[in-house]
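sry for the spam today, last one i promise. C-alpha cells for design, 160 residues
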C-alpha cells in the first residue's frame, strides 16, 4: 500500500504545473510567430516515448531484466519529454526516490522553464547576456595563471 502524499509531493506537483504552463505558453508563442512550428510535436513525441521507457524500465526492474539507462531517460527529458517523464514517475511509481536522478530531472525541468520564461518575457535577452558574458574575456577576468600560455622561448635580457 502506498504511503500518503507528503508536502514535498504537493510541491513537486505544483512546480510541474507551473513549468508546464510556462512551457505551453512558450511553445504557443513559437507557433504563433511561425518559429519552429513543429516543436510542440517534438515535445509530445518525446513525452510519449519517455513515458513508455518508464513503463519498460519499471517492468524490467520487477522482472530483473536489462534496464533502460538513466542517460537515455534524461536525453528524452532534455528533448522535451520531461512532461511525460513526470507522469511516468507518478503512474509507474518509478525513479521517485533516487535523489541523484530526481536532482537531474528537476534540473532539466528548471532549464526548460527558464528558457521559455526568458523567451516569453524577454525575447531571449537573458540567454544572450549569458553568451555575451562567456564570450568576453571571461578567462582573463578569472585571472587563472595556469590557463595563460607560457612564453618559455622568449629571449630574456636587454638589447644594446
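last one done:
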Amino acid at each position: 500500500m502506498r504511503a500518503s502524499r507528503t508536502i514535498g509531493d504537493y510541491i513537486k506537483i505544483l512546480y510541474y504545473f507551473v513549468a508546464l504552463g510556462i512551457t505551453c505558453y512558450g511553445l504557443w508563442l513559437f507557433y504563433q510567430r511561425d518559429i519552429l512550428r513543429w516543436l510542440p510535436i517534438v515535445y509530445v513525441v518525446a513525452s510519449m516515448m519517455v513515458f513508455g521507457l518508464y513503463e519498460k524500465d519499471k517492468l524490467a526492474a520487477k522482472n530483473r531484466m536489462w534496464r533502460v539507462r538513466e542517460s537515455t531517460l534524461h536525453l528524452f527529458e532534455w528533448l522535451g519529454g520531461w512532461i511525460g517523464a513526470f507522469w511516468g514517475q507518478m503512474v509507474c511509481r518509478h525513479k521517485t526516490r533516487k535523489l541523484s536522478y530526481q536532482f537531474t530531472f528537476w534540473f532539466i525541468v528548471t532549464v526548460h522553464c527558464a528558457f521559455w520564461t526568458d523567451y516569453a518575457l524577454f525575447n531571449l535577452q537573458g540567454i544572450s547576456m549569458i553568451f555575451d558574458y562567456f564570450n568576453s574575456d571571461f578567462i582573463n577576468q578569472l585571472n587563472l595563471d595556469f590557463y595563460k600560455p607560457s612564453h618559455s622561448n622568449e629571449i630574456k635580457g636587454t638589447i644594446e
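The chain has six helices and no strands. ok im logging off now
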